[in-house]
Design brief:
Elements: H1 3-12, H2 20-23, E1 25-31, H3 40-48, E2 52-60, H4 71-76, E3 80-83, H5 94-108, E4 113-117, H6 124-132, E5 136-141, H7 147-152, E6 155-158, H8 178-189, H9 193-203, E7 210-211, H10 212-222, H11 236-242, E8 247-251, E9 257-261
Parallel strand pairs: 1-2, 1-4, 2-3, 4-5, 5-6
Antiparallel strand pairs: 7-9, 8-9
Amino acid sequence: MTLGSQKVYNIYMADENTNSLSRSKIAMLIDGDNAQATLLSQMLVETGRHGQVTVRRIYGDWTTTSMNSWKDVLNFHAFQPIQQFRYTIGKNATDSAMIIDAMDILHTGVVDGFCLVSSDSDYTRLATRIRESGVFVMGIGRKNTPKPFVNACDLFVYTENLIVAKEPAKPKQINTSTKNKKAKDEKEELDPMPLLEQAFEMAVQENGWAALSTLGNALYQLDPGFDPRTYGYKQLSKMISNLKNRFEVKTSESGGFYIKFKE
């Protein structure tokens, strides 16, 4: 087994007692000209399945209106915008800046893997070079991404598979009591399930179960301000145990705490 394949094996095949989210560090580099801002949350969750996303950067010409869609979501998810002016009209200017940064990060050795978000074949050689160094590299892009770039990655995820179907909008109910409406809004704001669902997708193993410790790390990746006490619980395990209608819980022989969503 080569060094490169060993890296991939370690990331995918961690046993139940190994917390891969804390063991592996991922640099996520996004070509803002060739990615969808609306899918940033889903892309972060997908990358978080393979490690902790410690380096988060988005590249583009932030003086143009085409980058406006990124501004709110990148601040929410703590991504660093990297400015790259377009010196030639019609040419993607982010390629060189992103490639140079990727090589700098690779040689510092601060991460165990990379996620390159783009549908541009110009990153094919970069992905190949990262793999040659024995470092895990995954890609995220549209289904029309050229095959050379797709095949240069250890793993490639199509954005079409990340789009979550929206539920039909429910008819709005007129609430005559302002007090009741305010209480309802506060309750919805304190609902932990959307965050728990995202974290579970990052932490779940092939058998459908997720270790509580891994789930906890995923929660802090998605929201560093997460605290079970915000929802009235001293510990995450007590919060999960109280959501018996949503989760199944089991304990392993070694004392590990595992959960999965009920069917």
